[in-house]
Amino acid sequence: MVHCQDHRRGGETPVAQHDVVVIGPPLRGERFISADSCCDASRHTRAALPINGRVYLAQRFAVDWEQLDAQGRVYAGAQSDLTSYTIYGRDVLAVADASVAAVIDGLPDQPPGKMPSDIAIEEADGNSVILDLGSGRYALYAHLRAGSIIVKAGDRVKRGQTIARVGNSGNTLAPHLHFHVMDTPSPLASNGLPYSIDAFQVTGATPSTEAFDNAEANGTPLAVTPVAPLRAIRNALPLDQLEITFDSR
Ligand SMILES: [Zn+2]
Q: What are the pLDDT digits (tens) for 105-126?
């Protein structure tokens, strides 16, 4: 076969050589679902945003952490009631000893069950905290509960320390924790970086994003396929639609 060389010439890009940052869990407890994680869920991994003339993919390795109750439900009770949701109000933890790079606070929790229609792009993350992990890595926690953030810019935090609670502020359908690591302290003008969580257990897998979305829309039990025996994982990025336990430590 003969190829014209011009057809084989692509754009060149530098490849980062530094190690993947290893962090602790952002939450504590069981039956968390790693929704919209790497790599087939297009909501994050392909969320390329043009900002100031460049394209950024800040959410490439983001996870929307959700949680099921004992019956496998995202919520029980009224869909429009924040307190119906299993994950609402759970402690959000510092993933490392770090300094607080930025805090956005003062936004309301949105009524769950429908996407808000009038959120400015600057407020899409809702109440949020950015931790400076060092070495050009920043952790973003988004959609935090109104009034729950207990750190401020410049504070030092310890790994495992509670910094806020899970909420539903910003551009969000239902309470969850959006978490990712990025290369600048700007959630928009940054690129997402891979990261490893140093210890977690995989207890099951959901059928699909579609099945999860149906369970979230209807409050019906999600048919999680258990993993037996439990798989204790070290230093890995949870992939999409797994059911995960984070030990309290
Ligand atoms: Zn998200």
A: 999 999 999 999 989 888 999 9
Q: How far is the CA of 32 from the centre of ligand 1 (A)?
A: 15
Residue with tokens 């769950």: 112
C-alpha distances (whole Å) from 163 to each of 13, 22, 214 are 36, 19, 31
DSSP labels for 119-142? --GGGTT-EEEEEEEETTEEEEEE
What digits encode the pLDDT tens for the residues 5-48? 455 667 787 777 778 999 999 999 999 999 999 887 778 877 88
User: How much is the pTM?
Assistant: 0.92
CB-count burial class (<10 Å; 0-12, 13-18, 19+) for 99:
middle
Question: What DSSP line would sit under 6-73, residue for residue?
Answer: HHH---------SPPEEE--SS-EEEEEEET-TTT-HHHHT--EEETTEEE-TTTT-EEEEE--TTS-
Going from the Cα of 1 to the center of ligand 1, the distance in angstroms, rounded, reads: 44
Please give the distance, rounded to the nearest whole angstrom, from the Cα atom of residue 2 to the centre of ligand 1: 44
* Ligand 1 center from residue 71 Cα (angstroms): 24
Alpha-carbon span 48 to 211, nearest angstrom: 25
